[in-house]
Amino acid sequence: MNFAVITFPGSNCDMDLYHAIKEGINQEVNLVSYKEKSLEGYDGILIPGGFSYGDYLRSGAIASHAPIIDEVIRLANQGKPVLGICNGFQILTEIGLLPGTLTNNRQNRFICEQVGLTVENNKTLFTSKYDFKEKITIPIAHGEGRYYCDSETLHGLNENNQIVFRYDSDVNGSVDRIAGITNKQKNVLGMMPHPERAIENILGSADGLNLFKSMLETQKSEVQ
Amino acid sequence: MSEPTPIQIKEDKIYKTWGLSEAEYSFISEKILGRLPNYTETGLYSVMWSEHCSYKNSKKVLRKLPNDSSRVLAGPGEDAGIIDIGDDQAVVFKAESHNHPSAVEPYQGAATGVGGIIRDIFSMGATPIALLNSLKFGSLDNNQTKHLVKEVVAGIGGYGNCIGIPTIGGEISFEKCYEKNPLVNAMCIGLLDNTQFKHGQASGNNNLIVYVGSTTGRDGIHGATFASDEFSNKKKKQRSAVQVGNPFIEKLLMDACVEIIQEHSDWILGVQDMGAAGLVSSTAEMASKTKSGLMLNLDNVPQREKGMTAYEMMLSESQERMVLCIKPEFEKNVLNFFDEYNLDAVTIGKVTSDKQYKIFHEGKLVVDIPVDSLTDEVPEYDHHGIKPKRISEDREQFDPQIASFKESWLNVLSSPTIASKRYLYETYDSQVKSNTVVRPGSDAGVVRIRGTKKAIASTNDSNSRYVYVDPYIGGQVTVLEAARNIVSTGGIPVGITDCLNYGNPEDPEIFWELDQSVQGIADVCKHLDVPVISGNVSLYNEFNKEAIYPSPMIGMVGLIEDISNITTSAFKKSGDLIYLLGSTGNDFNGSEIQNQLLGRVEGRLNEIDLNAEKKNQEIVLDAIQKHLIKSCHDLSEGGLVAALSESAFDNNLGFNIQTTLTSKQMFSETQSRYLITVDSKNKESIEDLFNDNFECLGFVTNDSTFSIQTADENLDIELSEALDNWKEAIPCLMN
Amino acid sequence: MILVKVYVMLKDSVVDVQGEAIKDATHTMSYENVSEVRMGKYFEIKFDNNSNDLEKDVDEICDGLLANPNIESYRYEIVGDIQ
Amino acid sequence: MILVKVYVMLKDSVVDVQGEAIKDATHTMSYENVSEVRMGKYFEIKFDNNSNDLEKDVDEICDGLLANPNIESYRYEIVGDIQ
Ligand SMILES: Nc1ncnc2c1ncn2[C@@H]1O[C@H](COP(=O)(O)OP(=O)(O)O)[C@@H](O)[C@H]1O
Ligand SMILES: [Mg+2]
User: How many Cβ atoms from other residues are within 10 Å of residue C49's Cβ?
Assistant: First the structure.
């Protein structure tokens, strides 16, 4: 499987994601600049965490106008897997691939800690290797991670099983303790916690590894 | 408004308001120039000859510090020192203080402190891998201090989180003397391949000087002299010295500089960051190191404001700027290279052979002075020290009268200096880059080096109470505590950077504190064979003539040869045996318990047996390498009471101990001790290693209780009660 | 040159955590009579020359960039020619 | 109830990096005629009842809290009674 990690000026978890693919699941991966206009040949698109454009205006707002974005939207609409982590999640909501918005944590401070999550849907291409309701530990590191959407949208998310990860406790004031959601088609996942920082026990947890393994396994089964 | 003429500067003694003394001024005009310096030139001398840039008051003292070992590739003198860690790799590290800017403007002061120290590291071509910080504030009992804490912590996090370098450790303490003069020290560690090492130098006639990064504005003018000046209520106008940091630009600058040094070393001869005293300091240092001259044309400098004078441009401390010395044939390549990163790069001058520093502005030659005179001809002052009266002669120890053992235990845990700082450091991204193995909360922070079995441990320590009561021994303790933090984690101490924070050195008592404590640091460094490879001096930390405690901060780096040796302070499982390595005496002077019971610290410290200290370090490292140890925590402030509790909290475990020590001695802060847990099956092997110098205190439990039996009483404390006191103290005080 | 002033505020349904923190801080400053603070963004945008349909342009810039319609609303004033 | 509207802007001497990035983004959205964007903060503060010296109170809140006098300047309007 060949992955693209999209880098914007100010992305800072791009190499973490790169290593997660290279060392975690042993697949091809390239860093692709925000200036590019084509993602031809890639089977998976990864949007990393960090502070694209210094989080100016709103996190993700300026990145959403970068040249590469049209292509990301095109591939997402084709059904290719697209994963946005942290700042990547913020960008995916800004460009409308995912509903809702991420805004300031309830505590109004940046928080970096290990948090407990529950896998709420293991029937997606990102979570097939997890058990339903599995408890996992993944770190968060964000200042604007409070997920917000209106009640109608929330209703839709629940109806369509789009909520994939929930925090076990109220870590940042997110609606319904939402930590990660997919689009309706379930090929686009956005999540605030960092699975790419949790792929080796020495770093405190390896619970994030199954997310990348799930993507790989799904792709293999589709190819067959 | 026109600038004062040279005559006016002399007659109205304008130079004095910039910090130049009369003697210095006449030396410049009579001995160096043979004429009166103009306004811009006087400005250049005043910043370059300030303590902050020249170390004129502290150089003599700094020479005491050993700066060599078999691992040192570069010592003080460069932007940062370099230590060989084998396999063709090296670590580069340095600490920097940003005390005065943070007092005036806490968020930006702290943020630009972090930004500045990061530039020192990547200007060496090293990739920054970790940040640490040491913070000191007044007591947390008033809104002003709370505001300072909140803003400083936010500034540190704001910069480090955005640029994407993990903050892996630090320390925070609270003491009345820092109320108006907080200390903000930041440290950065970078990783380097030896061969890529770039000196910050400008050499070779006609080589070009290139400016890269943010535009130059009027911010921070005279920041360097400001940092070397005492504070008082009157100087409100110092507000103009504020610099604003932009971590986003710095990230671009960092990535670009590391890449150009590593990939295109044939294009460039030197790289230097613009820190204190901006353009003048960076370019003059570059030139003087190679005995060349330099010509700059200020009209080419990217400017943010209209009508800036030469004086303003040369002294501006606008952030996120670098200078490079490059070969002329690669000018286009270099400028295009930075353009790809959306960074402004322009050629502003060239290297000359006449050893003169020549600045042109609007077509006119506005500065024409010998380069050397800015950097090498600075007078060096030899101050005279007098022992302060408060420092007594006898070493009789304070005798703590402990009314309630339990109450005192809980009070120690909730004392802001000992209580958990998590509420503050959890706002720092400690994990970005996915290399952090030990996050803040244990003894030293640890990052592994990807692709190798190695890891780097680092800690920031300073116990200014000890230095205050006994500068020489206090200085020793500071290094020893740092070393124990490294050793507890499984690391071998390999090098030190420091920030020496003191009051006005022209006061003989303060100079004595500086001199004695540096002597203590130096003696321990020599004994442990740990060199001081970089550092920073911050003097004049006073407010309305009240000096801070003498506060040397030690940033130590340790090498962990194999990541399987990494050890943390947390108890791991019930049933494990708890050992105290090292003997406990009555050491109460300068301690937490003395401060709590007396409301102040006093009395001399007991002398330290450096051989015993070194031996215990070796024993711990040996035991760790033999994988006999489950957890290890060094003892420092709060003695056994703090160490036992902290080790229990992380995994919500209890303990059951029975000791020959008295309840009082549980609070004693004797040096050279470690709290260690061991699987019971290893009892014999570990006791062999410990060789008599230990006490087996008891064992770890999972019944959520601390059960303590001392020589004089029994005590049970609920884990939850102890934890609450420790964990909630700081959030409670902050809100 | 035309100056446009844009105001972006969180919708009432979204908790304004910054506004709340500021309100609390005014109380510690002992301005107990502050009953609400809401924090928004303010922009001054200069347009070189009038476009065919300035209002449409400004609406698009606000919708597409300055405000996030999920959580924010905006209003603006066209101040007119400023020389 | 009294409503006060406060505007906080960076001083001219401080680069408005956000404003510049926003300007660039409007250009990629092909509004080439945007020549300058400056970004500031906007606050709506409600006071329960009039104080003796509302202007003094607002000034103190602005100086001590809403604006960072080192790098920002502010202005405000007292909108008056809003029931
Ligand atoms: N400003 C800070 N930044 C990051 N980590 C901090 C800070 N202050 C304290 N810590 C962390 O909290 C833990 C306890 O600190 P401290 O009590 O100073 O340890 P020690 O006494 O072992 O030196 C350490 O892991 C330290 O790194
Ligand atoms: Mg320790």
Answer: 9
User: Residue type at A204?
Assistant: G
Residue D82 has pLDDT above 80, yes or no: no
At residue B327, φ and ψ (nearest 5 deg) are -80, 135
CA distance to B387, B476, C8, D4, per residue, from D42 (Å):
56, 53, 8, 11
The CA distance from A103 to A90, in Å, is: 9
Q: Which domain holds residue B363?
A: 198-378
B193, containing H or E segment = strand B183-193
CB-nearest partner of D15 from B107, B215, B242: B215
Best mutation target among C9, C27, C31 (most D Cβ atoms within 10 Å) is C31
Q: Is residue B488 a part of any domain in this protein?
A: no
Closest CA of chain A from D11, distance in Å:
18
- For residue B396, tell me if it sits in a domain: no
Mutation test of ligand 1: which of B156, B171, B447, B557 has the most ligand atoms closer than 8 Å to its C-beta? B171
Chain B residue numbers touching A115 (CB-CB < 8 A) = none
User: Around Cβ B87, how many Cβ atoms within 10 Å?
Assistant: 13
CA distance D31 to C72: 22
Q: What is the pLDDT of residues B252-309, one digit of tens each?
A: 999 999 999 988 989 998 898 887 778 888 888 888 877 889 999 999 999 988 888 9
Contacts with B14 (C-beta within 8 Å, 6 or more apart), sequence order:
B4, B8, B42
- Is B147 catalytic? The answer is no
Q: What ipTM was reported for this prediction? A: 0.93
What residues contact B689, with CB distance under 8 A and at least 6 apart?
A: B619, B622, B623, B626, B628
Interface size, chain B vs chain D, as Cβ–Cβ contacts under 8 Å: 31
**Domain end: B353, B378, B403, which one?**
B378
Residues 6+ apart with CB under 8 A from D55: D78
Instruction: Return the DSSP state at B548.
Output: P
Q: Do D13 and B239 touch (CB under 8 A)?
A: no
User: A146-192: per-residue pLDDT in tens?
Assistant: 999 999 999 999 999 999 999 999 999 999 999 999 999 999 999 99
- B702 half-sphere exposure, CB direction, 13 A CA radius: 6
Distance CA B366, CA B594 (A): 60
Residue with tokens 């235990």: B409
Domain final residue, candidates B378, B401, B422: B378
Does the annotation count A86 as an active-site position?
A: yes
D68 contact residues in B (CB cutoff 8 A): 105, 107-108
Q: Parallel, antiparallel, or unpaired for β B72-74 and B81-86?
A: antiparallel
Q: Domain for residue B129, yes or no?
A: no
What pTM was estimated for this model as a whole? Answer: 0.94
- Residue B109 belongs to some domain of the structure: no
Please tell me the residue having the least CA distance from ligand 1 atom 18.
B171
CB–CB contact D70 B104 (8 Å): yes
Q: Which two tokens stand for residue A16?
A: 């973490």
Please indicate if any CB of chain D lies within 8 Å of the CB of A57. yes
Domain count, chain B: 3
Question: Looking at the predicted structure, is the pLDDT value of residue A145 above 60?
Answer: yes
What CATH number corresponds to the domain at position C73? 3.30.1280.10
What's the structural domain count of chain C?
Answer: 1
- CATH number at A2-223: 3.40.50.880
Q: For residues B295 and B308, give the distance between their C-alpha atoms in angstroms, rounded to a whole number.
A: 19
Structural domain boundaries enclosing C33: 2-81
Residue-wise pLDDT for B228-268, tens only, equals 555 555 444 434 557 889 999 999 999 999 999 988 989 99
Query: What is the Cβ-side half-sphere exposure of residue A119, based on CA atoms within 13 angstroms?
Result: 23
Question: A201 to chain D, minimum CA–CA distance in Å?
Answer: 39
Residue in B567, B550, B732, B728 with CA at minimum distance from that of residue B649 = B728
Structure-token match 């077509």, residue found: B363
User: Could you tell me the CATH number of the domain that includes residue B245?
Assistant: 3.90.650.10
Which candidate from D17, D28, D29 shows the least CB-CB separation from A56?
D17
